[in-house]
């Protein structure tokens, strides 16, 4: 039970003044009242906005960020050569390393304004490719890191069985990922049991991609989930690379988004990550499904994927959210900025991802990505309203970035002005995780991370 009082807060209908936020013992907003009196509530020290869900993360890749940018070797560097480097990196990562890297990453997320994360977790086995004594070992390390940092977690254990379309045998580099459906379901159960009673953790499921699971395996996984957890979030990598689309066409005669929509019951609890390469017809079909398109603009740029057709998708009412994926950037500001800038560069026009429902471009981007991210993670968040989680950010009223901004202009200043973080305090489930730009445990967490990085890169 806690109560907060904000001079100004962005509610669903717009900015409100003198807002009292009441939080129950589960971390849910029990009342959000504008034009209220403080009445002993804790006073918030700046404008308040909803926290941003980060719908796509591979935590271990935080340890590789910035280390894969050297040109050279033979042939052209691409997503596929980067992936080889990623496989080699995984030869070393042990459970302690993963926990250290994930904890550091999650602290960075919170300080940047992400209050929840969808962890698309596919490293299940030891470096030799054997399951750990507890097959959920690495999943539980992710959960422990999230709990230590205090970020809300939707854990998405990944079904990964094959190297390519048509059930080709996995390669040596994929030995840490490969698992059976039974083992994966056991991992799901184990994580759910360990995290039972923690309202900040929930568990979904992720068939890795149409490359890594066969149609039969996909159907079996969805059937099993429909029995045990029918409303659980389902995430899948879908059409990140042109070669992936070409291979899917060669295998099935259909493009990946079309194939999935033809063969799976895609609904609002699905998230299609990297729906980058779509025809106009696929754009309309995906938007009509109610599923969320999971966009990771900085990673998609870093890997040379291509650009998502965000303008056409938005015109058809498609839902979207953002993720930091490979963590070359850990900032909702930068993801949203590049989501809009990518479209400006292609269309040679400005203020493209806007809506008459919101005062400004960035207000629209923030609101839609927060709502879509929450939908994708299966959490009641992304908006400050009774019944939603008390996950919010207090912007720094002293930041020069925000000096001249008012109302929805605050979002524009946040997203399109400068590179100094303007997030001051962060609450998850009504509990402070960042105060005055600092996380309580950031020093010991950074120390463990630095030690792990020294070992991993020795
Ligand atoms: Zn991914």
Q: Tell me the name of the CATH homologous superfamily.
A: Metal-dependent hydrolases
- The strand count comes to 18
Helix content: 25-40%
CATH architecture assignment:
Alpha-Beta Barrel
DSSP strand content: 15-25%
CATH topology: TIM Barrel
Hetero ligands: zinc ion
Topology:
Layout: E1 2-11, E2 14-23, E3 29-33, E4 42-43, E5 48-50, E6 52-57, H1 79-89, H2 95-112, E7 114-121, H3 137-149, E8 152-159, H4 181-194, E9 201-203, E10 206-207, H5 215-228, E11 234-237, H6 242-252, H7 256-263, E12 270-273, H8 280-289, E13 292-295, H9 297-302, H10 310-315, E14 319-322, H11 332-347, H12 361-377, E15 392-395, H13 409-416, E16 423-428, E17 431-435, E18 438-439, H14 442-457
Parallel strand pairs: 1-4, 6-7, 7-8, 8-9, 8-10, 11-12, 12-13, 13-14
Antiparallel strand pairs: 1-2, 2-3, 5-15, 15-16, 16-17, 17-18
Helix pairs in contact: 2-3, 2-14, 12-13
Bound molecules: zinc ion.
Residues 56, 58, 120, 237, 273, 325 line the site of zinc ion (ZN).
């Amino acid at each position: 039970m806690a109560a907060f009082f904000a001079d100004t807060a962005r509610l669903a209908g717009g900015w409100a003044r003198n807002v009292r936020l009441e939080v129950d013992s589960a971390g849910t907003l029990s009342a959000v009242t504008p034009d209220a009196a403080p009445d002993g509530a804790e006073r918030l020290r700046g404008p308040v906005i909803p926290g941003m869900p980060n719908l796509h993360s591979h935590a271990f890749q935080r340890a590789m960020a910035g280390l894969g940018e050297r040109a050279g070797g033979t042939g052209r560097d691409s997503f596929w050569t980067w992936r080889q480097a990623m496989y080699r990196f995984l030869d070393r990562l042990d459970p302690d390393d993963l926990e250290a890297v994930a904890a550091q990453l999650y602290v960075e997320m919170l300080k940047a304004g992400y209050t929840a994360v969808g962890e698309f977790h596919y490293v299940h086995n030891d470096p030799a490719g054997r399951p750990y004594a507890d097959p959920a070992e690495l999943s539980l390390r992710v959960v422990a890191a999230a709990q230590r940092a205090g970020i809300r977690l939707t854990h998405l254990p990944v079904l990964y069985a094959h190297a390519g379309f048509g059930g080709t045998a996995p390669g040596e580099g994929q030995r840490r990922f490969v698992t059976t459906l039974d083992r994966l379901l056991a991992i799901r159960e184990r994580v759910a049991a360990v995290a039972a009673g923690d309202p900040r953790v929930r568990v979904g499921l992720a068939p890795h991609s149409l490359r890594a699971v066969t149609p039969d395996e996909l159907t079996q996984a969805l059937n099993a989930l429909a029995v045990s957890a029918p409303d659980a979030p389902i995430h899948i990598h879908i059409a990140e690379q042109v070669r992936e689309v070409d291979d899917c066409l060669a295998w099935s005669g259909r493009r990946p988004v079309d194939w999935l929509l033809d063969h799976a019951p895609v609904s609002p609890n699905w998230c299609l990550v990297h729906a980058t390469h779509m025809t106009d017809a696929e754009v309309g079909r995906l938007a009509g499904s109610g599923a969320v398109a999971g966009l990771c603009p900085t990673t998609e740029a870093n890997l040379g994927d291509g650009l998502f057709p965000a303008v056409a998708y938005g015109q058809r009412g498609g839902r979207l959210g953002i993720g930091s994926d490979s963590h070359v950037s850990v900032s909702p500001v930068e993801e949203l900025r590049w989501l809009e800038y990518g479209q400006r560069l292609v269309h040679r026009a400005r203020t493209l991802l806007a809506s008459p429902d919101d005062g400004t471009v960035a207000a629209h981007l923030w609101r839609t990505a927060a709502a879509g991210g929450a939908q994708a993670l299966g959490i009641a968040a992304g908006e400050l309203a009774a019944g939603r989680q008390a996950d919010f950010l207090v912007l720094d009223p002293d930041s020069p970035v925000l000096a001249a901004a008012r109302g929805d202009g605050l979002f524009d200043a946040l997203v399109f002005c400068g590179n100094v973080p303007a997030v001051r305090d962060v609450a998850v489930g009504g509990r402070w995780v960042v105060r005055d730009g600092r996380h309580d445990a950031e020093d010991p967490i950074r120390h463990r991370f630095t030690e792990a990085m020294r070992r991993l890169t020795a």
